[in-house]
Amino acid sequence: MKTWLSWSSGKDSAWSLHVLRQSDGVEVVGLFTTINAAFDRVAMHGVRRALVEAQASAAGLPLHLIDLPDPCPNAAYERIMGLFLAKARAAGVEAMAFGDLFLADIRAYRERQLAGTGIAPLFPLWGRDTRGLSREMIDGRLVAHVTCVDPSRLDRSLVGRRFDRSFLADLPAGADPCGENGEFHTFASAGPMFGAPVAIRPGIVTERDGFVFADLLSAGWPE
């Protein structure tokens, strides 16, 4: 099946690409990402558009960007996504894949979005034990950094950290090792899903809208 993968820029999207490329009957032919048009960044993760484009280039795949207004009422979101799904179907897309792990309401919403479009939903990581999955990613040479934390769930000092076994050890009891409940978000910069690493360097740490963000910059950008 010709498949587009929902690409948040984080570890779950990246590992989903790795898993799908090893799956029979699935051909990932593109990535798609929602962008906050006002800030030119990936929604929620706060990652710059240019870095997501660099990821797609490293993965050897075209990136389809969906610009969302800020704020974006649900009616506007549904209209924009409806147009995007029609475009995807016209391009011959047969499936869309998502890196969701266990949140049933999110999965049900995605399935409702695709119902009647002729596009099948795929969830390559669904139901995996997140403790084992997080270690599998790390041991599988995935390199990712924490770009956002919810300070009501995690200490602010964890933002900007590399997603590794040391980071997992520092998570408080009850935090999901993959951040599936919104505890944190990441940016994947290297791993088996990329032909070459995406070179990055840390920028400033800011707090807005109740979250703490660590900005990431391309290593090639000037100061």
Commentary on this structure:
The protein has six helices and ten strands, in the order E-H-E-E-H-E-H-E-H-E-H-E-H-E-E-E. The protein is an alpha/beta fold. The chain folds into two domains: 2-122, Rossmann fold, CATH 3.40.50.620; 133-218, no CATH class. The strands form two sheets. Strands 1, 2, 3, 4, 5 and 6 form a six-stranded mixed sheet that branches. Strands 8-7-10-9 form a four-stranded antiparallel sheet, with helices on one face. A hairpin with a 4-residue loop joins strand 2 and strand 3. The longest helix has 17 residues, at 74-90. The chain is globular and about 45 Å long. The N and C termini lie far apart (44 Å). The mean pLDDT is 96.
Classify the oligomer.
single chain
- Beta strand count: 10
- What letter string, H or E per element, gives the SSE order? EHEEHEHEHEHEHEEE
CATH architecture of the largest domain: 3-Layer(aba) Sandwich
Largest sheet: 6 strands, mixed
Class of the largest domain in CATH? Answer: Alpha Beta
CATH homologous superfamily assignment of the largest domain: HUPs
